[in-house]
Specification:
This protein has 484 residues and is of the alpha+beta class. The protein has 4 domains: 79 residues, no CATH class; 88 residues, no CATH class; 77 residues; 177 residues, no CATH class. The protein contains 15 helices and 15 strands. An 8-stranded mixed sheet has the order 6-12-4-3-5-13-14-15. A 3-stranded antiparallel sheet has the order 7-11-8. α5 packs antiparallel against α6, α8 runs antiparallel to α9 and α8 runs parallel beside α10. The N and C termini lie far apart (83 Å).
């Protein structure tokens, strides 16, 4: 190995008549190397060679320098370590602390602004902090006679405390909105422009609506171009992100204005259950997986568009049929958007996750944490291909194609290839136009719930295998149930 070849040359350079200067106790070094074999099994052979060489020719300052460098390099390669041991936790907490310290920058108003991990300044800070942490760890290993596990445990605790203290400071001061990492912002901007172009080309869109989109398209393209050009500019990483984030927010504002034109298309596309002719249908379904809950208590709904050719309801047995209200829609996606909900405190407690966003309000979704309701949650998306401008025909077409591609059929009892339309409660509850069941035996349970909560709406029986629905009036279902 190159390390030990260099070490041997260094030993030959030592004047024989002079006693090699012992920077640290030789037996302690040997014992440490023996202990490290348990932490670095992949390096056992090299460590044994080092021990043999030490016993044969003694110790020098040059060998100490090379050995420390080697140990640090291997330690930084955490793949050699059991992820559960204290050593790995030292570097895990050190990395988290360094990222938080360099990503959360205090502003003039006393609040913190969060930046993504991919900035060069963040990477440089993390690298420097790693070196400092490595130097301290190696010095402790070779200058302290305490057991190695105690050295690791103490350093782990120290890094953990620094991280906790840093996060508490940020939480106390508060953070500004975090829109997401640079890649997410650019991909979402690109996708929104793609949706605008599709609306302009669509036959079902009115000429007046197309005019609005045609007017806005060059402006939105300019937003995206400036964001792209900023990536290769001479600005600092922090400055680049501010520019990209500004263009991103401007595009979302314009998207929100244009979305008014989408509303009429969707309303004409969805099925009126009170006038269903028994043929094709288009419904937006939300599965209730946590039990039956009245619609006015729903702060959010993750819904799926279904039709006679594809009913991709991935879970649940019953739920709500939702009306389309663009003002209550955070975003739409032709696939699973990977939507999650978290408060700003949770975002901070998790160490400011780089791929999360803490920007778009989730609408006061009622989630129970520690027995108390949590308000003001935010929604974040894993998938950047989201927009409020997606045409229903595109969502339907994409969903059918993906189901055929991944499971060989568009229809079936379960599906992981579904679309997502994310609804958020505003100053009024999310409007529902009916309830649905996927199994006939659930009709009685759901109809009783509807009656108890005065939900006088159609109850629809959905068959995922045949792509058919049966529309029942609540009164008819209750009459049939009493006869049984």
């Amino acid at each position: 190995m190159f390390l030990f070849k260099r070490a041997k040359k260094a030993q030959k350079a030592v004047v024989p008549k002079e006693e090699p200067k012992q920077a640290i106790d030789l037996e302690l070094v040997i014992r440490r190397l023996q202990e490290l074999e348990d932490y670095m099994p992949e390096q056992r052979e090299d460590l044994e060679k080092a021990i043999s060489q030490l016993r044969e020719v003694g110790y020098s300052e040059e060998f100490e320098r090379i050995l420390k460098s080697y140990i640090k390099r291997i330690m930084l390669g955490t793949e050699y370590f059991n992820i559960e041991n204290d050593f790995h936790q030292v570097y895990s907490h050190a990395q988290k602390f360094a990222k938080v310290q360099s990503r959360a920058i205090i502003c003039e108003d006393g609040m913190y602004k969060v930046y993504p991990e991919d900035l060069p300044e963040v990477k440089e800070y993390v690298s420097q902090y790693f070196q400092e942490c490595s130097n301290l760890l190696v010095d402790n290993l070779f200058h302290s006679d305490r057991p190695i596990f105690m050295i690791f445990a103490d350093m782990k605790m120290a890094e953990e405390e620094k991280l906790k203290s840093c996060l508490q400071t940020i939480k106390k001061a508060g953070i500004k909105d975090y829109c997401g990492d640079t890649t997410f912002l650019l991909k979402r901007m690109s996708y929104i422009i793609e949706c605008v172009k599709e609306v302009i080309a669509a036959k079902e869109v009115s000429e007046s609506a197309k005019t609005d989109f045609q007017t806005c398209l060059p402006i939105m393209e300019q937003f995206f171009l400036e964001a792209q050009e900023c990536v290769s500019s001479n600005l600092s990483g922090y400055q680049k992100y501010v520019v990209i984030e500004t263009q991103y927010k401007e595009m979302l504002r314009m998207e929100n204005v244009l979305s008014e034109n989408i509303s009429e298309i969707w309303k004409g596309y969805l099925t009126d259950l009170n006038n269903f002719d028994g043929t094709n249908f288009h419904l937006i379904l939300h599965s209730l997986t946590g039990g039956l809950l009245p619609p006015d208590q729903m702060g959010k709904m993750c819904t799926t568009l279904v039709c006679k050719d594809c009913v991709p309801v991935p879970y649940g047995k019953f739920g709500y049929i939702v009306d389309f209200d663009i003002h209550q829609i955070t975003s739409m996606c032709s696939e699973d958007a990977g939507s999650w909900v978290a408060t700003k405190d949770e975002f901070i407690d998790r160490g400011l996750p780089d791929t999360w966003q803490c920007f778009e309000k989730s609408g006061g979704a009622l989630r129970i944490t520690g027995g108390e309701y949590v308000d003001e949650p935010y929604v974040w998306f894993e998938c950047p291909s989201i927009s409020k401008l997606i045409l229903p025909s595109k969502i339907e077409k994409t969903t059918i194609e993906r189901n055929i591609q991944y499971r060989g059929s568009a229809l079936g009892e379960s599906s992981t290839c579904y679309n997502e339309i994310y609804f958020t409660k505003t100053d009024v509850p999310i409007k529902v136009v009916g309830m649905f069941v996927l199994q006939e035996e659930e009709l009685e349970t759901v109809s009783q719930f509807m009656q108890e909560n005065h939900i006088d709406l159609p109850l629809v029986e959905v068959d995922r295998l045949t792509g058919t629905i049966k529309v029942h009036q609540l009164e008819d279902v209750m009459t049939t149930s009493k006869k049984r």
